[in-house]
Amino acid sequence: MSTHDRERDMDDLLREDGGEIGRLYRRLPRYEPPRRLDRAVLSDAARAVHSGKPPRRQRWIFGIGSAAGIVLAAGIAWRIGHDAMSDKSIIGPAREVVPVQPISESARRKHEDAAPAEAPAPAAATQAPAAARDEASGASPTSDAIRQSARKAKTMSKPAPATAAPPPPAPKQAPVPVEAPLPQAFPEAERHQREAGAESEESTRPYGNAANPAAQGATDDKRSQPAAGAARHRQGLSSPTPPSGSVELQRDMQLAPEAWLAHIRELMRQGRSQQATESLRLFRRTHPKRPIPDDLRPLLD
Amino acid sequence: MGSEKTDEELMLAYAGGDLLAFEMLYRRHRGTLYRFLLRTLRHRADADELFQDTWSRLIAARERYRPEAKFTTWLLQIAHNLIVDRFRRQRPQASDEESEAVFRTLDAPDDEQPERVLTEFEQRRRLQLALEDLPDEQRVAFLLRVESGLGLEEIAAVTGAGRETVKSRLRYALARIRARFAS
Fold first, then answer.
1. Crossing angle of helices B136-146/B163-182, nearest 10°?
2. Which one, A190, B31, B41, B157, has least CB within 10 Å?
3. Cross-chain Cβ contact B107/A1 below 8 Å
4. Which residues are within 8 A (CB) of A80 and not within 5 positions of it... i.e. 6 or more apart?
5. Which chain A positions have a beta carbon within 8 Å of B146's beta carbon?
């Protein structure tokens, strides 16, 4: 084949019909793509048009954003609920915290048991801490009742168990502990309580409500104890439990505020200034928001 | 009428969300593209794979299509790029020395070349064998011309080669085919 022929072939190939070689090529088998390829390509095209899906990376962003939003919402909801619970417990009246009934009931029962054998009950009450110390040191106590009272006073001085202790069978005869028949060991306190009750029925009413520990002790105390603790903590005060563990101070805590103050005044009149001072200090810690009367203020100085 | 639309109009319509435009475009070019791939690759599985890849790339790039480029050229450019990648992974190109040897054979006297007496069936068979034996670049250029009907400039645009290079490749391809008929 000459160069001329090759150029002629080239010209023929570049013609519209491709020349002789082009015509021969068109007689070759006309292969077509299989149908599965048609379906695959067309479905790709349709998916690209109709789905409108964002790229994979953007879908990740949406997913992460949704998860973060849910976590944030849950955190806010939890925080709001937590704050609401805290506010509720803090706002609750701190006065109702005072563990009233379990102490008085147990103390009263003990004193009732010991009353026939006891001669000077006030002395036994005031000597309870000493009896407890004696018992701890192995010294022989003067009386079983004193020992039991001291032991009770020690155990009840712990704030949390006092509220958590299951209340005794509801004393129907004594809905208000301060009005319940008191043992002979507390004749003065009984009298002051009754005086206070006569003076200010209004001030004793809350204690009258709280005097049914069988119904309220387990719920109110649990609810209000943290609140009282929080209030005392905010004021930098320690627990209102009597520092000396005195049964009489324990019993003072059961009094209504006005009655308690009257009792303190009575102690002063009797010349028991040390007892009055301790009781007033306990009063201030138990009722931190209540103003101290001017006539009693010198006891704190 | 949709059938009167040009390839470029259909492609723009598909880029705007018209799926029917794509289907029409696909029907127009599916056979040509497939045959080009099959005869270039000479392997059906490879042709199937690159056929789908070519359309997938076109679909993914639909929003970047500009009507300044002829649709056929764009489609075949995508396919050609895939072919070149495949060739690079599979085997080396035919050397120029091999092509020159073919031409020496072709320069034999006409009376020694009996192709004119071959039957049509034998001619088609020999053409097919000749295509298979062509170096890849020559085969691509030849197929772009006879299968897709592209001119020299369009083949140059698709393959990225110069116009004269394309013309040379076509000339070598024709010489090889003639040599096959003469053997």
1. 90
2. B31
3. yes
4. none
5. 13, 18, 21-22, 25-26
